[in-house]
Amino acid sequence: MTEQFEPVIVGFLCNWCSYRAADLAGTSRIKYAPNMRPIRVMCSGRVDPQFVLSALRNGADGVLIAGCHPGECHYVNGNIKALRRFTLMKDTLEQWGIEDDRVQLLWASASEGAKLAEAVNRMTEEVRALGPLRWSEKVLTGNGAAQPAVKEA
Amino acid sequence: MTENGKPKLAMYWASSCGGCEISVLNIHENILAVDEIFDLAFFPCIADFKVSDVEGYPDNYIDVCLFNGAIRNSENEHMAQLLRQKSKVMVAYGACSHVGSIPALSNLTSREATLKKVFLDNPSLDNPHEVLPQTSVHTPEGELTLPEFYHTVKKLDQVVDVDYYLPGCPPEPPQIWAVLQVVAGALTQGDPLPPAGSVVGAGNSAVCDECDRVKHEKAIDRFYRPYEIQPDPEQCLLEQGIMCMGLATRSGCGALCPTVGMGCRGCYGPPAGVEDQGAKMLSAVASVIAAGDETMEEDELETLIQEAVDTIADPSGTFYRFSMSHSILQRVKDANGKGAA
Description:
heterodimer, A: 15% strand, B: 10 strands, 13% strand, globular
């Protein structure tokens, strides 16, 4: 029997909407993938790109950023800033070879427990299909020695 | 070498352009004072020393070693280790040894792609047998060797312990002279040295602090590449849509580039407290993009923001121009990377 790969997804959930959506999913006894490790932040606009990179560097296979729907931000436009950062960060991550599905942005309001659960389920399967990221072991080991040898002359 | 009791100074270039050496000579007449205070123990750019001279020194023989250049190959790493062993104080001198700098931009691609580009696909090259450099080749005369070309470019403190960092591409002459005076004071009069691990010869805030351009609240519709726009002489460059790394770059240079209309390129590395210069720049730039507001539908919002973001050419190469080795992820993954192609 081969063991199934269980991805680790770090979830940054905003205090006012998405963290409450996760709460609602819990109190509603919705069963969903246990792969997301939720971290509560005050606003999706608080998510510094450094947080995302640190998560990926330190063993996460994916990162989910979740906030209020545009127009519903507790701080008026923190989520718009999050979307701008996310958009630019995605362009950068593409250059770094990090697959699109590994870093996702989700709008989930406090009443959307089911939507959050469904998104976590979907993302878990998408990241599972991509396989482990294991940045420190797979990308940063050795200094060339671990890489395929250059063709002999 | 004759022993004259003077403190011993070394300067070595690893993967570098030579500009750091020139910057030391660029402290003008103070170079004579350097010669008065110090005795050169190793400085291949300006004096005839051999590696065997250094190998012959006892450990800690060199008082101060200014090490510039990134760690690109096995020879760079070997020299870093040798000089670390022979030096009391190791200074990462200049952006390459501090944060990786231009050589580390090749962390955006792979070793194979780099060699292919340089030795096979270069239009000015004729290499019909596709000969690539080998670490060892047997010839009738004997074995010839070359250093191993690394996959990932590292900064100095990723291979040896570093006591001080002197940022800049290259460091600014007044800063260099100030640091050399502190070091000389410590060596000759027992003055206190800054705490180990300090960034010396630079400020702690951002370049914007030193920049005299007029700044307002920023709201940027689109970005321009330098050739696409004639910058206003007074206004903040970033506000005009010219990519300027000043706000994510350590102060100390006196804002030379923005003052003359060129966006800061980020050579002094991240300011104090910043882990990843590129990520901080990305964060700052993205949050002042003017496109989209909270009244819009999600689709419209995404389209407008994507359009504004698309005006930024090569975001990784721009935001991480100098700090790839210093960044959180350090290099790109091989598979699927645009840069690896």
